[in-house]
Amino acid sequence: MTKITYQHIPVMCTEILEYLKLGRDQTILDCTLGLAAHAEAILQQLGPGGRLIGIDQDQEALQAAKDRLGQFNNCILLQGNFRNIDIILDQLKIDKVDAIVFDLGVSSLHLDQATRGFSFKLDAPLDMRMDKSLRLSAFDLVNFLPQEKLSDILRRFGEVRWHHRIARAIVRERKKTPIVNTAQLADLISRVTPRRIARIHPATTTFQALRIAVNDELEALKEALVKCLDYARVGARICVISFHSLEDRIVKMQFRALASEGKLRIITKKPLKPTEQEIRSNPRSRSAKLRVGERI
User: Fold this and answer.
1) Sign of CA pseudo-dihedral 152, 154, 158, 159
2) Helix, strand or coil for residue 289?
3) Single pTM value for the model
4) What's the pLDDT tens digit per position in 52-61?
5) ∠ CA(132), CA(137), CA(142), 5° rounding?
6) Contact (Cβ atoms closer than 8 angstroms) between residue 127 and residue 116
7) Contact (CB, 8 A) for 41 and 103
8) How many Å is the Cα radius of gyration of the chain?
9) Which residues contact 78 (CB under 8 A, 6 or more apart)?
10) Do 28 and 101 form a contact (C-beta atoms < 8 A)?
11) Distance CA 241, CA 249 (A)
């Protein structure tokens, strides 16, 4: 397979390394391997006696991670969805890990690679599947869902203010011609959204909602946060970086529920945010929030 080279700046890497409390002979689970920037930093601290288990549902990202981590012989990298970490770890005959990392959302690979259809800034076929084996893409949702269901997805997963109006416009447009690419959808949203001064493009939250729906991201996160605790050794830290309020709310509420059951100690009473210096050097980090819990 052709070697993939890609530049990627890990978000809040200093904080991740600090809060994981890494030891040299530990087993670390990276549930969102991505382009392996966090994984590389973790492996550099683990030493040869430790090991990292990295999973990612995106085959292209996984290949890029394998290329990046080629110098390390103490990592196992697998394709899979983190909602199935119980199946993955059982197959590896791993019953406990010493720390767990989640870096949620889309990576630079998704946003900057036009062919994946994640970004309204790059014209491409409407896709948004992180795992290309998934049956339904954003094209299917946009062109075939009933108006009411489409509106509900925009409201629930994007908190889109004009969800009724956008869903109605999409249905009206697709009766004339299929909506097949990102530029077509973004232009439609811009035309039907009232013009006002805004910090973000009017298509931003609609694209977020469609991406979350295609990949079933929020339900997968809920499942993974519960399952991972069964495989966390006492004292293991669980670090979760989220990038929008829906993800962060799930992490917060799940941590609280687990804490009330006496299974988790919440380390970060409020989420940590990137420093101003990091935001200046990596603007994509500006919306990141880090929450940390510890297995008890």
Assistant:
1) negative
2) strand
3) 0.90
4) 999 999 998 8
5) 170
6) yes
7) no
8) 20
9) 53, 54, 55, 62, 88
10) yes
11) 12
